[in-house]
Amino acid sequence: MSNVDRNKPYDYLNAWLDKQVKVKLKEGNVIEGVFVSYDIHMNIVIRQNRELETSHIFIRGDSLLYIERLDR
């Protein structure tokens, strides 16, 4: 095995903090917002900015299907 540095999932997630993401849940719902934080269980917090208010959504890791970064 070579000594090539490989990115780990947490490296990607750290790079995605404060970026626009799309999250798809197992139930089929899709949520878009700013990726605020995560933990080792893949629980995540998404911030959505609406016209007059900002809301934070906590999503349990076991309900996630995927996270996609939108702003590249």
Order of helices and strands: HEEEEE
The amount of helix comes to 10-25%
Return the structural class. Answer: mainly beta
Average pLDDT number: 90
Task: Explain this structure.
Strand 1 and strand 2 (30-38) form a beta hairpin. The chain is mainly beta and 72 residues long. The protein has one helix spanning 9-16; strands spanning 20-25, 30-38, 44-49, 54-59, 64-69. The chain has a single domain (9-69), classed as SH3 type barrels (Roll). 11% of the residues lie in helices and 46% in strands. The protein has a 5-stranded antiparallel sheet with strand order 4-3-2-1-5, with no helix packed on it. The protein is globular, with a radius of gyration of 14 Å.
Layout: helices, strands, pairs:
Blueprint (H helix, E strand, L loop, with lengths): L8 H8 L3 E6 L4 E9 L5 E6 L4 E6 L4 E6 L3
Antiparallel strand pairs: 1-2, 1-5, 2-3, 3-4
Search tags:
11% helix; mainly beta; single chain; 72 residues; SH3 type barrels
Tell me briefly what this model is.
The protein is mainly beta and 72 residues long.
